[in-house]
């Protein structure tokens, strides 16, 4: 369910409307099939409310339909609010035995996001942005929430690792695993996962490029492989940035610069990459190179002058100029 589905019958909406009219009774199996196709179509087009609505209608006819139960759980997950995420966790956990990969990936992502909600709530309590429920001491409640976040991320990592045990190159699991390792402060493990993900992405990009070089490739295949190549390139860039940040945490700034340089080679028009590399170059007292990157950031950035990132770039530029003067 985390992957988009692309097609649906053109007359599906009309057929469903006919199912709800006062006309002849529709065969239950045909009606079930229509609800399932409609649910998949709306989910693929990011219409989560309609997707869940159609899936629930299908479940009224066939309560144990695994695909529709999974789709409802993924809809809950994508809503992101606390109640929906807790519901998604329960539903995915209940489907682990029969739902396989989709259920475990959904459970892992639910736990990941619940952990972030718990951590954010703890930070808000510390900052005085919210009050503790039931008159509890804010500091104590913040500690409880952080412990809860740690438990949720630890469970999420276990779920991602279980997927990787049988699917070692799975992008979604590697991406999730590197993320929760970082949340847990496990920087070496996070970096290791990012390297595994980059190797997987390199292989995928090479495959897509090879397919695009095929003689007499069909327009459909060309469109599909170009889209896949673009998605793999984007995730590669994001993973290189993530790896660079983990290297900074591991006090390996020279290597962090190398990762950011690799990201810039893949996405030379992304202003933020030059800004990130400029910071790392400044940390290494490579002030002239940092100035070059700052100027490229300012040239490419679409933010207005008063944007915090732009103001920060000018501040860093001043520091670099001071560093060059000694």
Question: What's the SSE blueprint?
Answer:
Layout: H1 12-19, H2 28-44, H3 48-61, H4 66-79, H5 82-94, H6 96-126, H7 138-166, H8 171-183, H9 187-212, H10 219-249, H11 253-266, H12 271-283, H13 287-300, H14 308-325
Helix pairs in contact: 1-2, 2-3, 3-4, 4-5, 4-6, 5-6, 6-7, 6-8, 7-8, 8-9, 9-10, 10-11, 11-12, 12-13, 12-14, 13-14
Textual characterization of the structure:
- By secondary structure, the protein is mainly α.
- It has 14 helices and no strands.
- Helix content is 78%, strand content 0%.
- The chain starts with 11 loop residues before the first helix and ends with a helix.
- It has helices at residues 12-19, 28-44, 48-61, 66-79, 82-94, 96-126, 138-166, 171-183, 187-212, 219-249, 253-266, 271-283, 287-300, 308-325.
- The radius of gyration is 24 Å and the shape is globular.
Keywords for this structure?
326 residues, mainly alpha, 14 helices
Brief rundown of the structure:
The chain has 326 residues and is an all-alpha fold. 78% of the residues lie in helices and 0% in strands.
